[in-house]
Amino acid sequence: MTTTTRPRPAALILTPSAEARIATLMAAAPEGTIGVKLSTPRRGCSGLAYSVDYVTEADPFDERIETPGGTFYVDGGSLLYLIGSTMDWVEDDFTAGFVFANPNAKGSCGCGESFTV
Predict the structure, then answer these.
(1) CB-neighbour burial class of residue 57 (10 A; exposed 0-12, middle 13-18, buried 19+)
(2) Secondary structure string (H, E, C) spanning 55-75
(3) Which of 3, 33, 34, 112 is the most exposed place for a label (fewest CB within 10 A)?
(4) Residue range 72-84: average pLDDT?
(5) What is the pTM of this model?
(6) Taking 70 as the threshold, does the pLDDT of residue 56 lie above it?
(7) pLDDT value, residue 112
(8) Strand 85-91 relative to strand 12-14: parallel, antiparallel, unpaired?
């Protein structure tokens, strides 16, 4: 019997707008930066928040996603909270930022700063 495997889907889907923003961030990144990383630290009134930062060294437990503008990492400890999510970059006249559609989030605070799973 032969075992067939199928490609593993990405833990997180990046929209073209999010990929373009990652490229912009990487173009202006401090020296020694190897990518941009998403994590979900505990903070805010609902428990978890989204945090996007530069990263200078790879963690073997992080999910690595290659984008046209650079490498995007998802924190290994945050993966279970983010699987199936879509990350977008949205700009309007008054605000700009990453926006997340997370099917794992069961609720969020009134200001949208944090979420619960």
Answers:
(1) exposed
(2) ECCCCCCCEEEEECCEEEEEC
(3) 3
(4) 91
(5) 0.83
(6) yes
(7) 55
(8) parallel
Dihedral sign (CA 102, 103, 106, 107): positive
Sheet holding 70-74, edge to edge: 51-55, 35-39, 70-74, 63-67
Q: Which of 81, 59, 53, 68 is nearest to 14 (CA)?
A: 68
Closest CA to 86 of 2, 14, 3: 14
- Give me 109's structure tokens: 């605070």
CA 93 – CA 41 distance, rounded (Å): 29
Q: How confident is the model at residue 102 (pLDDT cuts 50, 70, 90)?
A: confident
Q: What is the pLDDT of residues 5-55, one digit of tens each?
A: 777 677 899 999 999 999 999 999 999 999 999 999 887 666 788 899 999
Burial of 65 (0-12, 13-18, 19+ CB in 10 A): buried
